[in-house]
Design a protein that fits this description.
By secondary structure, the protein is an alpha/beta fold. The chain contains 18 helices and eleven strands.
C-alpha cells in the first residue's frame, strides 16, 4: 500500500526546514471558456472558466455550487426556523446558471434532508441538459446498510431531484471508520456492484467517491481501478493551501492533499474539490495575516486567495463552494470568471501563511453540521466558530497579567453570549460522544466542549 509520506517530496517536516525555497503548487491549467453571456448585469470581469471531464467530455464550470448550507427562512426573519427558503434558492440558482455555473452538488443528508428536494424544484425549471447534478449515496447510518435500504436511498434521490439520471454520483465520505465500515456500506451488501450496473444502464453518468479519513480506503479504491475492477470517473477530495501539505496538523487522520491529488493525477482521474475555504476559516484569517494578503493583492478578498489556489491544479474539474447568500455567489463569480491561477511565488507565500494559521491552534471545524442536532441542544458549530474567531482576533486572554485581559475577556464573553444562546453553549455538553461518530474532521468534540466550557467559566469568574 502506498505511503503518503514516502510518495511525496513535499512532506511537512521537509517544508518547515525549507520554508523559504518551496515553490510550485502543481501544473497550471490551460482552461477552456464558456460562450459569452450577453447580459449587462454580470458581476465578473469575463467568462466562467470551464474544465473538461476527459471521461465524458462534459464542460463543467470551475466554480461548483455546493448545496450543504442553503439559506433558511430563519435567516431571513431572524428566527431559528431551519426550513429552506425555496424562493431564495431559486433566485441563486437562476443567477448561477445565468453566469456560467452548471455543477450543483447535494446529498440526501444535507440541510437536515431538505437539500435534494429543494434543489430538484429549483433546477427542474431548466432544461435537463443545461446543468449537472452531483449527489451521493449517504448510507452512513447502520440501518441503511442493508441492500434494499441503500437502493431505496438512491431511488429517493432520483425522485427528489426530479430526474431519471444522476450526472455525478459519489460514494459519500468513504474512509471514516476504515475498511470495515466501508465494506459494510458498499461491499458486503453488493451496493458497489449495484452502482456499477446503474452506470452501465445510464442512470449514473459518472461514478466516484468523496474521501475523508483512513488512507487505506482511498488506496484500496484506486487499487481496484488499477486492477481493472472498476473505473472511477472522478473523486472528491479536500484541498486548500493548508491541507496541501499540513492536513495532519489540523486532523491527525487527514491525508495531505498533495498525495491525494497526485495519486488521482497519475491515473487521469479528475478531482472535485471540497472545503477550499476549510469551513470558512480561510475566508476570515487573523488581522496580521489578512494585512499581508491585502498588501500583495489589495483588490482581492481573503477568500479569493483560497479559491484561486484550489482551482489552479490542471486536473481539478470543479471547486465547490457553499454559497448561502447571493453576495457569496457574486463574489465567487468574480474569482472564477475567469480564474487567475496561483503563481509559484504566490504558492510559496501561501505555504508560509499556512504555517502561521496552524500556529494559531484553531479548532479544525468546517461547519458541515454533520454533528447536529445535538441531543442536548449544544450548537456545536457556532461554539467552535466563536472560539476560532477570538483566536484570529487575538481575544483569548490568558491571565489577569495580560495587558489586554479586560478588553479581550469582555470581547470573548460578550461575543459568546451574543452568538450562542446560553442554553446552547458548551456547558450543556454531557460528553455522550454521539457527535464524534459523524465528524469528518475527527474532532474530539466532547473534549473540546469541556475545554471551552472550562475556559469560559474561568473568564466569567474573572480568573
Amino acid at each position: 500500500m502506498a505511503n503518503k509520506n514516502k510518495e511525496t517530496d513535499y512532506g511537512r517536516r521537509r517544508f518547515l526546514r525549507n520554508i523559504g525555497i518551496l515553490s510550485g503548487a502543481g501544473v497550471i491549467a490551460s482552461c477552456g471558456v464558456k460562450p459569452t453571456n450577453d447580459d449587462n448585469d454580470t458581476p465578473q470581469s469575463g467568462e466562467m472558466t470551464m474544465r473538461v471531464n476527459p471521461n465524458t467530455g462534459d464542460r463543467v464550470s470551475l466554480l461548483g455550487y455546493g448545496c450543504m448550507r442553503l439559506p433558511t427562512l430563519g435567516m431571513a426573519n431572524g428566527t431559528e426556523d431551519t426550513t429552506i427558503d425555496q424562493e431564495a434558492v431559486n433566485q441563486s440558482v437562476d443567477y448561477a446558471l445565468k453566469h456560467g455555473v452548471n455543477y450543483f452538488d447535494t446529498s440526501p443528508v444535507y440541510c437536515q434532508g431538505q437539500s435534494e428536494k429543494v434543489m430538484g424544484i429549483a433546477l427542474s425549471r431548466y432544461p435537463r441538459d443545461s446543468y449537472y447534478i452531483a449527489t451521493k449515496l449517504s448510507n452512513f447510518a447502520e440501518q441503511i446498510w442493508p441492500r434494499e435500504k441503500s437502493i431505496e436511498m438512491f431511488e429517493n434521490s432520483l425522485k427528489n431531484l426530479r430526474t431519471d439520471y444522476i450526472d455525478y454520483l459519489l460514494l459519500h465520505s468513504v474512509g471514516q471508520g476504515g475498511m470495515e465500515r466501508f465494506s459494510k456500506r458498499y461491499l458486503d451488501n453488493g451496493i458497489l456492484d449495484f452502482l456499477k450496473e446503474r452506470r452501465t444502464d445510464g442512470t449514473i453518468r459518472n461514478l466516484g467517491f468523496s474521501y475523508h479519513g483512513d488512507i487505506a480506503v482511498f488506496d484500496y479504491l484506486l487499487e481496484l481501478m488499477d486492477k481493472g475492477e472498476i473505473h472511477w470517473d472522478f473523486v472528491q477530495i479536500q484541498l486548500n493551501y493548508i491541507d496541501w501539505h499540513f492536513a495532519d496538523e489540523t486532523n491527525p487522520v487527514n491525508t495531505d492533499a498533495v498525495y491525494l491529488y497526485g495519486e488521482l493525477h497519475k491515473r487521469g482521474i479528475p478531482s472535485v474539490i471540497m472545503e477550499p475555504l476549510l469551513g470558512g476559516r480561510l475566508a476570515t484569517v487573523s488581522q496580521p495575516i489578512a494585512a499581508k494578503m491585502k498588501a500583495r493583492r489589495p483588490d482581492d478578498s481573503i477568500a479569493t486567495w483560497a479559491f484561486r489556489y484550489a482551482g489552479t491544479p490542471e486536473d481539478v474539474l470543479t471547486v465547490l463552494s457553499g454559497m448561502t447568500y447571493m453576495e457569496h455567489l457574486q463574489e465567487n463569480l468574480k474569482t472564477f470568471s475567469p480564474l487567475d491561477p496561483i503563481t509559484d511565488d504566490e504558492d510559496a507565500f501561501l505555504q508560509r501563511i499556512a504555517v502561521e494559521i496552524i500556529e494559531n491552534k484553531e479548532i479544525p471545524c468546517t461547519d458541515c453540521k454533520y454533528c447536529m442536532p445535538c441531543p442536548y441542544g449544544v450548537d456545536i458549530p457556532t461554539v467552535f466558530k466563536h472560539y476560532n474567531k477570538c483566536i484570529k482576533n487575538d481575544n483569548m486572554p490568558r491571565n489577569a497579567t495580560d495587558p489586554r485581559y479586560n478588553e479581550a475577556r469582555k470581547a470573548f464573553l460578550y461575543g459568546y453570549d451574543l452568538s450562542v444562546p446560553r442554553l446552547r453553549q458548551a456547558d450543556r455538553c454531557i460528553g455522550c460522544g454521539e457527535c464524534k461518530l459523524h465528524c469528518p474532521q475527527n474532532i474530539n468534540i466532547p473534549d473540546m466542549m469541556a475545554k471551552i466550557d472550562s475556559y469560559t467559566d474561568n473568564l466569567r469568574k474573572n480568573k
